[in-house]
Amino acid sequence: MDLEQEILRLKKDLNAVILAHYYQESEIQDLADVVGDSLALAQHAAKTTADVIVFCGVHFMAETAKILNPGKLVLLPDLDAGCSLSDRCPPDKFKLFCQQHPGHFVVTYVNSSAEVKAMSDVIVTSSNAVKIVQRIPADKPIIFAPDQHLGRYVIKQTGRDMVLWPGSCQVHELFSEKKLVQLKVQHPEALVIAHPECEAPVLALADFIGSTKQLLDYTVSSPKQQFIVVTEAGILHQMQLRSPGKVFIPAPPDNECACNECPYMRLNTLEKLHACMAKRTPALELPPALAERAKAPLARMLEWS
Ligand code: 13P
Ligand code: SF4
After folding, report:
1. 234 or 305: which carries more pLDDT confidence?
2. Could you tell me if 177 and 146 lie in one domain?
3. How remote is the CA of residue 9 from the centroid of ligand 2, in Å?
4. Edge-to-edge strand list for the sheet holding 34-36
5. Is residue 44 part of a domain?
């Protein structure tokens, strides 16, 4: 069976749209209708007319699509595709944290569960966090969760003092300042571009910081020819497609691996994508009341973006 052809046939039969994050394997990206960062995929999910959303990404991304489309079937090739940031912010502990900081405006990164989103005032992604925090009245104290590194980056950009939930991404925290300095010495012509989930000493070495889409756009518009890419290696596929003549060097993690991959994102495969469309499962399910509560802060994000 030609898996790609079969997936395209099923897509037509189901009247489905396939949304894929940049960290998916390249075969999945090549089949998708839309490849994007968390914000672009959420914006697309909010306006799609398809009957079925097939989400090739991690759980919180598909959950976001479900919150925005409670009546639609939202499929995720592997329901175990979680996210360490989301996992490190359990709703019961987050509730206590919010209670310990009464009167705070709660800004939550989209890499979080529906329960945590439902306790928030506004959701942000890495591409709009600075812009959204700037809109919050200056006299309002802010909680920022769950990524402390993105939070510190936003504090630096906006000058706003924020209470940070101490979460981090297990993939981005693996980049090390030492290995990055070595790589810069080996490639003195290369610009360093990094995702704001990286730790501050790594971000201090970057020439440009942004969401996956912002990093991709930067490599297209920059006249430079070489880039050291400090985020999950899946993004290199689109960078190479958009700028075939340029050189992209994946920054290695601080272990024996050559490049840094998100183990959750990589749970999705072409085979599982085909199976979920053929069987119409696994599907994202959410209690309607929870979806309703989580929708308000998400809708505010889309409006403020
Ligand atoms: P982006 O929104 O920048 O694509 O980030 C998603 C993510 O999970 C980064 O680790
Ligand atoms: Fe979550 Fe990190 Fe994977 Fe992004 S790279 S999905 S933040 S674990």
Report:
1. 234
2. no
3. 31
4. 34-36, 16-21, 52-56, 73-75
5. yes
Q: Ligand 1, from 19, 22, 23, 34: best to mutate by most atoms within 8 Å of Cβ?
A: 23
pTM over 0.70: yes
Ligand nearest to the CA of 126: 1
| Residue 121 CB-density burial (10 A; 0-12 exposed, 13-18 middle, 19+ buried) | middle
CA atoms within 13 A on the CB side of 193: 28
Looking at the domain assignment, is residue 303 inside a domain? Answer: no
Report DSSP state, residue 147. B
**Interval 58-81: pLDDT, tens:** 999 999 999 999 999 999 999 999
Domain that holds residue 8: 3-82+265-285
Q: Looking at the DSSP assignment, which residues form a beta bridge with residue 21?
A: 36
Q: Which amino acid is at 47?
A: K
- The answer to whether residue 1 scores a pLDDT higher than 80 is no
**Cβ atoms 30, 7 nearer than 8 A:** no
d(CA 126, CA 36): 12
Longest dimension (CA), the chain: 61
Q: What are phi and psi of 128, to 5 degrees?
A: -125, 5
Sign of CA dihedral 123, 128, 129, 135: negative
Residue 2 CA, ligand 1 centroid: distance in Å = 31
Two tokens, residue 241: 């497609």
Mutate to test the pocket of ligand 2, among 23, 262, 267, 268 (most ligand atoms within 8 A of CB): 262
